[in-house]
Amino acid sequence: MNKLLIIVLIAAVMHSCAQKPQSVSKPQEHISVAFDADSAYHFAAEQVSFGPRVPGSTSHRLCAEYLEHTLQRFADTVIVQHGSMPSYNGTPMPVRNIIAAFNPSATPRVMLSAHYDTRPWADQEQEQEKWHTPIDGANDGASGVAVLLEIARQLREMNTTKGIDIMLWDAEDSGTPQFEYSANHDSWCLGSQYWALHKHKAGYEAQCGILLDMVGAPDAQFQLEQHSRQYANHILKEVWKTARRLGYGDIFTDKHAYPITDDHYYLNQAGIPTIDIIHYDDIRGFGSYWHTTSDNMDHISRHTLGAVGTTVLDFITNR
Ligand SMILES: [Zn+2]
Prior knowledge:
Elements: E1 6-10, E2 28-31, H1 37-49, H2 58-74, E3 77-86, E4 92-102, E5 109-115, H3 138-157, E6 163-169, H4 190-197, E7 208-213, E8 222-225, H5 226-245, E9 252-257, H6 263-269, E10 274-278, H7 302-318
Parallel strand pairs: 5-6, 5-7, 7-10, 8-9
Antiparallel strand pairs: 1-2, 3-4, 4-6
Helix pairs in contact: 1-3, 1-7, 2-3, 3-7, 4-6, 5-7
Bound molecules: zinc ion.
């Protein structure tokens, strides 16, 4: 059943990935959305059940196949992009990006994305003997993908006519380990870097990009990250405004955060204006479970998943 309710008419809404203000004065329907946080939680648990999704591992391959099959149930097309990029120490790393499209020929397009691989090392652990343990990546990896899978399910339910792409990046989190003492920033985000060099469709453009990363912790707060402000401030403002209207102003705060090297950096370099909704602040960093063996399902909150999913789905539905 389609659960959409048309609630209210809003005059002259200017939702806005558009660079130029529109002078439309026609009333626009506001559609309420139904994002199911329990379903998103389930999608996160399913990914974690494969084990750590380290590129090249069997768990990674099986999870990638699960993600492909799941998206095929909801989207109009699913493309899998295979490639290779040099890793932090120069050895080739396999890359397998998963790209699902709703209404592939519709324009303008919105690109929603998250990384699905997990960090091969728990290199933020205090105890050195844990540094080489791969992590569950319930928050760092599975949470963003889980929100996008549930958004995909809802887009199918509502038979969207909008042009929306859901891109699941590989090999985001195999950047130089702390114990190697070198700072190669381009060793991160290899999947999105590969895509920027080899777009899945010649001339592909999106008017608006939203990246999700670590969006499931109970104490998550999202701040206005600097690359997002620099490249896509108009999108950032509208998404945050949507979150406040929905009652999530305590999670989507007005504080500023330093620039973060994440997939959105490379997407912005490739001409897709993209914001990063990421659990980070200048004082606490990425949270206490980040890149540790404690990044597991015990520390995933349905409320946070719901806040992010409801905000993003409302924004893309009503823009
Ligand atoms: Zn990470």
